[in-house]
Amino acid sequence: MISVSKFVTGPLETNTYLIRNESGKGLVVDPSSGCADLLQQVHEEGITLEAIFLTHAHFDHILGIPEILEALGSLPVYVHADDSRALSDAGLNGSEWFGQPFTFIGQSTIITEDLQRIGSFDIRVVPVPGHTRGGCALLIDNYCFSGDVLFAGSVGRSDLPGGNGADLIKGIKSRLLTLPDSTVVCPGHGGRTTIGREKAHNPWLQ
User: How would you write 141-204 as a 3-class SS string?
Assistant: First the structure.
């Protein structure tokens, strides 16, 4: 079993998630800037972080990587191959649009599709392109970390570079809505939802 803490971080109120298991190991998903509260919880609970996972490489989901690495030392940073270039390209990751170009030029590890063991965690990586080319959902236990693909009552925008609205809706319907209705969806912005609720009520998916 895992437990999940959400921290609202960065200039676009991004949800940064701290996932921990019963053995005290942890993962961070989509760290934006301002991770002091997350790092304090890691310290107070004695959590050993094993990796940083990125659902995609837009700037508001990667700004906090240097902050975490500076505080805790070297950690693998996982990203899909189709988004990896955006880490080091301020135009592709969108930070250039806000007049504050940001790049991460450290080492990253490519996420591969399907079930894999990362540290102490079994994670199923589900690529869902359409918001970005390399957008992914991460499935751990009964949780789906959906990034900017699926939100409570909405879906991600597809009008940014690498976006494709038809691919986004197709991917959500074929790859996420087929999960159990009880699956808890933890999106990149806003509140939690469930797959069952989105199947029944999300106007973009009817």
Answer: CCEEEEECCEECCEECCCCCCCCCHHHHHHHHHHHHCCCCCCCEEEECCCCCEEHHHHHHHCHH
What would the two tokens of residue 39 be? Answer: 């790092």
- CATH number of the domain encompassing residue 49: 3.60.15.10
CB 74 within 8 Å of CB 53: no
Contact 159, 166 (CB under 8 A): no
- Name the least confident of 23-32, 42-51, 102-111, 155-164: 155-164
Q: Could you tell me the two tokens for 188?
A: 């990149």
d(CA 1, CA 142): 9
pTM above 0.85, yes or no: yes
pLDDT digits (tens, 9 = 90+) for 28-59: 999 999 999 999 999 999 999 999 999 999 99
Give the total number of structural domains in the chain. Answer: 1
Average pLDDT across the chain, whole number: 96
* pLDDT tens-digit readout, 70-86: 999 999 999 999 999 99
What domain range includes position 104? Answer: 2-205
**Residues in CB range of 175: below 8 A, 6 or more apart:** 126, 127, 128, 137
